[in-house]
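Q: Give me a protein?
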Amino acid sequence: MIAENSTAPALVEKMDAPVSDVPVNSDMLQAQGHMEKITKESDADAVNALVGMVKSMGVVSLQACGIFELVKEAITGGDDIAKSGALSVIKSCVVSVDSWIEPYLVALVPSILALAPANKLRAGAKDCLATVVDNLCSHAIGVVIPQLLQGMEAYEWQTKVLSTEILGEVASKYPEQVALQMPEIVRTMMVVVSDTKSKVKQTGMAVFPTVCNVITNVDIHPIIPALIEGYSNPAKNTPKALEALNGTTFVNDVDSPTLGLLVPVLLHGMKERKTVLVRKSAVVIGNMCKLVNDPRDAAQFYPILEPPLNKAIDVVADAEIREVCTKSLNLLSK
């Protein structure tokens, strides 16, 4: 005879219960109630209660109870009070909840950056983002960096400024992660420091040195200011940047972050009409290639530097400069 299951009546009662009495729906209604107080009244107790649900229920609270969607809806479609409340929830979650929540918070970073143009929300958005990046693991930061780079090229100048400021904080706390994405970061920073909006340009000029400090090759540290000036006004300052590069003695290994900073100015020099600048660029390319230990570091820049070197070999009248370009191309190809 099969023993009677004492839990069966309880299960039947739950299955027959009204929808509002089913635990997951009950929790959903509770979450909605907390969120309503947060978005309409900026209720701090409701923030604590909602975050408490997230902590105790885990990922179920975000999915089955719809908390993630509630926060996302508030931050993207609500009024200023609702958006401010959503920022409070996000900030509290990143501090209080375990690391499993990080992918959900990272997904909200672009929406937080988009709040920058709103005068009443800008400070809160910056504070929230600073708290988020300060508490994420390094792997999550690797995902946030491209989001910041996208924000740095946004239409709204306030979003550009906020994204650049947060990138500076990321560079200070997670230098290894920034170094891994240095080529992409430098290309975006070049756009920022040459922006026509003075506030964007000023922010970029202030943050760029912090970004460059993640580079471990100390040979180039003394010339970082000249390189940044070159990127801020290529037409005017590229010759000075190349002069500084030519006066630098490279003795340490040249890696991908180092190349990421130097290649754009070398590329610009190779495209200059003045052949003396072409020669200087080619000389530096050759010198750097001699100190690249990992061929993969140079390989990613080969498609960028090979065309201008080949073009110089074909069109420059000066035989000595053509020879310099040929030697540098051979070193780059190894």
In short: Confidence is low (pLDDT under 50) at residues 1-23. Residues 161 and 200 are 5 Å apart (CA to CA). The domain at 26-136 is CATH 1.25.40 (Serine Threonine Protein Phosphatase 5, Tetratricopeptide repeat). The radius of gyration is 27 Å.
